[in-house]
Design goal:
Oligomer: single chain
Family: Belongs to the ubiquitin conjugation factor E4 family.
Pathway: Protein modification; protein ubiquitination
Number of helices: 39
Distance between the termini: 156 Å
GO cellular component, one term: ubiquitin ligase complex
Organism: Parathielavia hyrcaniae
Keywords: Coiled coil, Cytoplasm, Isomerase, Nucleus, Rotamase, Transferase, Ubl conjugation pathway
Strand content: under 5%
Mean pLDDT: 83
Structural class: mainly alpha
Length: about 1100
């Protein structure tokens, strides 16, 4: 029976062969224990540190003799026993009434104890003593041993003693009692016979229950007694320590050699798993002292470590079947307790399951640590619990669920951090095993960044995010505010047999052959821990959190797709009301789509909840700041830090180590900051530093350092997002820094203007549309910093000192303005028409749906183009206010005038009536703002004669009536003050006069020979030049063409303006012809004047 319970004892099972049992027991005891330490060598009373057992308990005098030799044993010499003298002073453990309650016992009335034996366990007796007590006498050593051992192991050899002093049922040991009787010894338990007592009691324990259910409570009682000792009591301490040693040894025997106790091996019983899963404080859980004792004996017994290791592997396997909805916490707590003992962790790290070749999805199930990292609210069965019925959840409920999700996950990640820190600190070998495990995760999850991700081929999002978070925490110790340890990150990591495989990763600025050649040159030595963790964390962000962010964006698209399909199916329902079979099919299809939609929405809300956790993102941003500083140091080949200057452009000779870095080294930084700017900007207030602006400006100015055009454009996006108003910061998180810091003042404007030109041709198939988005963001950055006069002065200086650069910039600005204004304004007549058509009640349902779809498409395009148009016109107004002369250079003035005239005609001429639509603000179309800005550009440039002549020469769009109509609208709608309107009218008069002069010149030159006309533009050439293709065009024509397309317009071969050759002979012929035409015109004018004067004289004479 269970001596820990009060139940009648069952029949004792047959014992195994006694000789076999004796051999096994002696062999095992030789490893697990030795004779008890003498009283003089015992530690001080009350200590809880276990002693490592010495050689064993296998002496014949200490072993239970076989039953068939009982008579011989009875005649043998008495067994050696521990002699315990009464303590000098009475203690709670040194006195008892148990000794006088048994026949034949002796007592000393002068040294009787003052406390009952029930106090030994620290518990008050719950039942009266079974026998009538006599006044307590001083307890002998034998009496103390008998009382204490009976209380600990709940056994007795006295048939007349059914309970102990606390009323607990004692199990009678008939075999040992018979032996003692045969030896004429007192019926008391002693240390010398304790092994036999434990063996008999354990053998009698019910075989349908684990034996540890008996032995573990015995262990805890003996531990409590040791801790409760007070004062110097070396004899008692020695006795209890021997009892503890034997108890632990038999606990191990029960699990590893159940045959000793007449038991068959039973995997459900012979394991520590259920006891590890219980809390340490509970009676059924392993206490810390058990762990301490186990660790102390590891060197002496090679079965203890495998016992614990197998138990933890089994717990890991059990956890792999659970989710966050289940009772997973005991498994995590078990490993938390386990992780407090480095030797056990070292043994666990050597188990084959700690890291074995697995596919990406199976890492999180079949490795030891995998199931612990797998627990996440992103598990499919968990998301639908946090977000049940997501289609009907309002924003408040979603946020509440996300907060609960974050708290649960945060607590779990704290546990994971504790566990991994323990593994890292356990030993160098174990640390390397953990780093290998993390690296293996990264190496088999490259497909997580594929365009199309198959969940069956990669690890889950929840698992990867947990890995990312824990690696972030490993970086915290070396991420100080001064970046003092960033220099310890070794750039030679990937050339020192790295754990990470970056062979198939795109490099920052090198092709595959270059990177392979570079990394083939190996370096000696090993990378330090900081370097290892740095690169592992960088990869974890790429394959973990950043991949989850990309998935969240894709889920938005999927949700819209499913919602559209459900709406389309519901629209078909009225048509099927008379067809039940098809209606049922429709209901099933709607149900399937709804289930998928709700699962997708729940997953999206869960990923948002995980990624929007502020502490996690703050830690991530801190790491990204370190990556930023490290990249700038590597690229600039300096010891850069935010408090040190950085000179641009970067060295023309790029460091090979930088060129061959994986592209995600920079991509992760940019994407992480973009995500935070968009979703949780409040945390960036304390996380953003000058190094982020330095990163963006540096690689925009020295854009040749980065190969990927999309990555470079992301730097502009990052700067743009930094200008968004946030809380009290009207210019955003980065606006004030970009406006006022010296580094930004020196390099920002040129860097963004340079990239404005560069993004014209990115090489991507979407480059035509991408450039408008990029330039829109550049406009936001320039407008943000324009309040600082430094930038205006820089613009003026750039237009003078770098004329070619500035002309290209202005030309592209004109191209954009021309295109987006034309595209945007041309959509409104179509929108107007479609809106009118939808008002027709006779329109069929099919035609209405088609019209509605066309309207949505036109509205979307109009909105995008008008946003770009507003920003482009605003930027032109800004620049022409500062440097009007630069916009009237010969290469661009004619195109500028044509663009302005055309759009002015659209806004104020007869076509303006077609621009009327419902809710124009919806499309960012506000003529009351757009028209005055166009007028401002005219006025800003009106002082330059070449601009006036260019407007007058615009035969396509310029009309004096349009200028007059514009003045009328400005005055009647109060869009400008009277002073500005008068300036407009003066300018209109100048242009009209110039038009008259040009019309006369056109009459003079309208019969020019074909060889004098430009073959592309059809105008009379003034400066003919010969192209490399031998064609002759005017210099202004080819100059304008090369600004947008640096190729020969005839052969499409690359060329620059310096490749043209002036055709001086042709130019001279043109000038001679023009001179002849002018002379003939003057002569004709003189003759005409004379005839008129003669006619006048004749008339006068007649009068």
């Amino acid at each position: 029976m269970d001596p820990n319970e009060q139940a009648p004892p069952p029949p004792t099972p047959d014992a195994p062969d006694q000789e076999t049992m004796e051999q096994i027991r002696r062999r095992r005891l030789a490893k697990l224990g030795g004779p008890p330490a003498s009283a003089s060598a015992a530690p001080s009373p009350g200590t809880t540190t276990p002693t490592v057992a010495g050689p064993s308990f296998s002496k014949p005098a200490e072993s239970k003799p076989p039953a068939k030799e009982a008579e011989k044993s009875a005649q043998a010499e008495p067994r050696p026993k521990i002699t315990i003298s009464p303590a000098p002073a009475a203690t709670p453990q040194s006195t008892s009434s148990l000794g006088s309650s048994r026949p034949g016992s002796t007592s000393n009335a002068d040294s009787r104890a003052k406390r009952r034996a029930s106090d030994v366990d620290g518990h008050v007796a719950t039942a009266p003593p079974p026998r009538k007590q006599t006044p307590a006498a001083a307890e002998t050593t034998d009496e103390y041993a008998d009382r204490v051992l009976s209380t600990i192991f709940r056994v007795t050899v006295d048939p007349g003693r059914p309970t102990d002093s606390q009323g607990h049922k004692l199990v009678y040991l008939p075999d040992l009692s018979a032996e003692l009787a045969a030896e004429s010894a007192s019926l008391r338990l002693s240390v010398g016979r304790l092994e036999e007592a434990i063996m008999e009691a354990a053998t009698a324990f019910p075989h349908d229950r684990p034996l540890l259910e008996y032995l573990l409570p015995c262990w805890k009682r003996v531990v409590r007694m040791l801790k409760s000792l007070r004062g110097p009591a070396p004899e008692k301490e020695a006795l209890l320590k021997e009892a503890r040693r034997l108890c632990f040894s038999n606990c191990i025997f029960a699990l590893t050699v159940p045959e000793l106790f007449s038991r068959e091996p039973n995997p459900r019983h012979d394991t520590l798993v259920p006891y590890l899963l219980h809390e340490v404080e509970t009676e059924s859980g392993l206490c810390m002292d058990f762990f301490v004792e186990a660790v102390a004996r590891l060197d002496d017994d090679d079965t203890i470590a495998p016992l614990f290791t197998k138990a933890m592997v089994d717990i890991s396997a059990k956890l792999s079947t659970l989710s966050m909805n289940d009772d997973y916490k005991p498994c995590v707590n078990a490993l938390l307790t386990y992780s407090r003992f480095p030797p056990l962790l070292n043994a666990l790290a050597q188990h084959p399951c700690f890291q074995m070749a697995q596919s990406a999805p199976n890492i999180e199930k079949n490795t030891v640590l995998g199931p612990f990292f797998r627990i996440s609210p992103l598990q499919p069965e968990v998301t639908t619990v946090y977000f049940a019925g997501p289609r009907t959840m309002d924003k408040g409920r979603i946020q509440t669920s996300q907060s609960a999700l974050q708290m649960t996950l945060g607590a779990h990640q704290t546990d994971l951090k504790t566990i991994i820190n323990a593994f890292i600190r356990a030993s160098p070998q174990t640390r390397n095993k953990v780093l290998d495990w993390f690296a293996y995760i990264m190496n088999v999850n490259h497909k997580r960044r594929a365009i199309q991700v198959d969940p069956k081929e990669v690890s889950s999002d929840g698992f990867m995010i947990n890995v990312t978070v824990i690696l972030d925490t490993l970086c915290e110790p070396f991420m100080d505010g001064t970046f003092s340890k960033v220099g310890r990150v070794d750039v030679g990591y990937f050339r020192r047999n790295p754990r990470l495989d970056i062979g198939d990763e795109t490099k920052l600025n090198a092709d595959q052959a270059q990177s392979d050649a570079f990394y083939a040159k190996k370096l000696d030595g090993e990378s330090n821990f900081i370097t290892e963790v740095f690169f592992l964390t960088l990869a974890a962000h790429h394959y973990g959190s950043e991949a989850a962010t990309a998935k969240m964006k894709n889920l938005d698209r999927d949700i819209k797709y499913y919602e559209k399909n459900i709406a389309m199916m519901e629209a078909e329902r009225p048509k099927l009301m008379s067809r039940p079979a098809q209606l049922r099919m429709l209901d099933e299809a709607v149900k399937r789509h709804t289930n998928v939609l709700e699962g997708t929405m729940a997953l999206k809300f869960s990923i948002e909840g995980v990624l929007l956790e502020q502490k996690m993102q703050a830690r991530s941003l801190l790491f990204m700041r370190y990556v930023t500083v490290w990249l700038l140091r590597l690229a600039s080949q300096t010891e850069y830090a935010p408090d040190k200057p950085l000179k641009l452009p970067l060295p023309s000779e790029q460091a090979e180590a930088f060129k061959c870095l994986p592209e995600y080294a920079l991509q992760d930084v940019v994407d992480n900051f973009k995500f935070v700017f968009r979703y949780i900007p409040q945390i960036i207030l304390s996380a953003a530093g000058d190094e982020m602006i330095a990163l963006c400006i540096t690689f925009l100015e020295s854009s040749e350092y980065v190969k990927n055009p999309y990555l470079k454009s992301s730097l502009v996006t990052l700067l743009c997002h930094g200008t968004w108003p946030t809380y009290h910061l009207k210019k955003g998180v980065l606006g004030d820094t970009m406006t006022n810091t010296k580094f930004a003042n020196d390099y920002l404007l040129h860097a963004v203007m340079k990239f404005y030109i560069e993004c014209e041709s990115t090489g991507a198939h979407t480059q035509f549309y991408d450039k408008f988005n990029i330039r829109y963001e550049i406009f936001q950055v320039i407008k943000c910093v324009w309040s600082n006069d430094v930038y205006r002065a820089q613009l003026v200086q750039s237009s003078k000192s770098n004329r070619t650069f500035f002309v290209r910039f202005v030309n592209l600005l004109l191209n954009d303005a021309t295109y987006v204004l034309d595209e945007g304004l041309s959509k409104f007549p179509k929108i107007h028409e479609l809106q009118d058509r939808l008002r027709n009640p006779e329109l069929s349902q099919q035609d209405r749906e088609k019209t509605d779809e066309d309207l949505r498409s036109a509205e979307s395009q109009a909105t995008s183009y008008m946003q770009l148009a507003n920003e482009t016109v605003s930027m032109m107004k800004l620049f022409t206010t500062t440097i009007g002369q630069s916009f009237t250079m010969p290469e661009i003035v004619q195109r500028l005038a044509g663009m302005l005239d055309y759009n002015l005609e659209i806004l104020t001429g007869p076509k303006s009536k077609t621009l009327k639509v419902e809710n124009p603000e919806k499309y960012f179309f506000n003529p009351k703002t757009l028209l005055p800005e166009l007028v401002d550009i005219y006025i800003n440039l009106g002082g330059v004669q070449s601009f006036i002549e260019a407007v007058a020469a615009d035969g396509r769009s310029y009309k004096p009536s349009t200028m007059a109509s514009t003045a009328h609208i400005l005055r009647s709608r109060h869009l400008k003050d009277e002073k500005e309107i008068r300036e407009w009218e003066v300018l209109a008069a100048k242009i009209e006069s110039a038009k008259a002069v040009l019309d006369q010149a056109e009459l003079d030159y309208d019969d020019a020979p074909p060889e004098f006309e430009d073959p592309i533009m059809g105008i009379l050439m003034t400066d003919p030049v010969v192209l490399p293709s031998k064609h002759v065009v005017d210099r202004s024509t080819i100059t304008q063409h090369l600004l947008s397309d640096p190729k020969d317009p005839y052969t499409r071969q690359p060329m620059v303006i310096e490749d043209v050759v002036p055709d001086d002979a042709l130019k001279e012929r043109i000038e001679l012809w023009k001179a002849e035409k002018r002379a003939k015109a003057r002569a004709a004018q003189v003759v005409g004047s004379g005839l008129v004067e003669g006619a006048a004289d004749v008339m006068d004479t007649t009068e």
